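One thing: can you check what follows?
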Amino acid sequence: MTWKAEIDPGRCMASGMCAGIAPDLFVLGEEHARPRHEEVPEEERVLDAADSCPALAITIRDGTTTVGPRP
């Protein structure tokens, strides 16, 4: 199973937290981070990356349900 990862480029401040937690799933560009692929595995570290984003720029979705970041 997979989730969909989105990063809002308007909110992303390129802290690199997501790429540090899951470098095979997120990459840090010059201006902001982005997911390497739109679909990501249903893994705890994906949610950890979304939770760790200081700008809350990462959204993880399971269909129409938002699963990350967690409250």
